[in-house]
Amino acid sequence: MECLLGLLKVKVVRGVNLAICDPLTQSSDPYVVLRLGQQKVKSSIKYHTINPEWNEELTLSITNMMHPVKIELFDHDTFTKDDSMGDAEFCILDFVEIAKQNLSDVPDGTVMKTIHPEKANCFAKESHITWKDGKVSQDIVLRLRNTDTGELVLHLNWVNIPGVAR
After folding, report:
1. Residue 35 covered by a domain
2. Where is the chain membrane-spanning (predicted)?
């Protein structure tokens, strides 16, 4: 059994300009699925929108920081298989490595690392891993793949588990 390193709280904030899967209404009924290893969590469905506001927090247990978080967006359909609306993924290695450090002497609001968009990631713009209010956090905008349009806005927070060594 792998050792629990901590919890990754992923706040699914919103989707921006997502694909239209329901042509009659010029909208979609999107929801988000996050996967990490064998874990799978999903958001609620937001009906009749291509710019959904979720503001939902989903939690993943981190036992291996080498695995990427994989994201899929789907359009909910009642009578047929849900349609794919794109996917993305991001690496948590830098985030977890910073979160596992003793940051008690680091000034509040310090940007610990900046991650730039590149071919190897789905970032739509640069993202900062920040130490603020006693927490490591990161705001992310991901460009969706395997679709013509759409971005997903996330906010990450790290939760240390009492009794788990840093």
Report:
1. yes
2. none
Whether 39 is in a domain gets the answer yes
Burial level of 54, CB count in 10 A (0-12/13-18/19+)? buried
Helix (H, G, I), strand (E, B) or coil at 98: helix
Q: Domain count for the chain, please give it.
A: 1
Token output for 107: 């000034």
**Closest C-alpha to 64, from 23, 3, 143, 134:** 3
Q: Dihedral of the CA atoms 128, 101, 161, 61 (nearest 10)?
A: 50
Is 51 inside any structural domain? yes
Host domain of residue 25? 6-159
The predicted-structure confidence for 89-121, as pLDDT tens digits, reads as follows 999 999 999 998 989 899 999 999 999 998 888
pLDDT at 166 over 70: no
CA separation (Å) from 134 to 11, 16, 61, 108, 131? 18, 30, 20, 7, 7
